[in-house]
Amino acid sequence: MPREPRNALNAGGRAGIAEMGYAVWKSGGARALYNGVNASIFRQFTYGGLRLALYQPIRDTLAGSGNETPSAGLQILAGGASGAIASAVCTPADVVKLRLQAGSAQYRGVGHALCTIASAEGILKLWRGVVPTSTRAAVVAGVELGFYDIFKTRAINWVSPCLIVDR
Asked: Is pTM beyond 0.90 here?
């Protein structure tokens, strides 16, 4: 006889991903596994795009007018700043994503959820959790973007002498 999955919300248990997936499938079918996917895509496009778009201008502003490669610390700082700003701006997308992933039936989609939360609970509820979310994003983006830029610069400097061809 198959074991019934524990419910992580009931009895304080912690279910693994397989148990939670099975429980979601059992309660709502295959469609329930995709709750909030549109909101996840919306959040990723807005946050990811803004984070990448902000990185280079922030890095260049912090570096000043010199033509030298910015220091590693400055690149990591620029990545952290771009992540924090993008996360703060896109926190409403995170709030909507979490609510739709939780399977809230009161929302018909991303736009409806944004409007409903703003009108029913106040516009500031869309920025609930902005400080911890932005702090986490600063750390992640600082490491991701900063180290990517550092390694990219080193790889170009290492490979470019090999690409020079004497004619």
From this structure: no
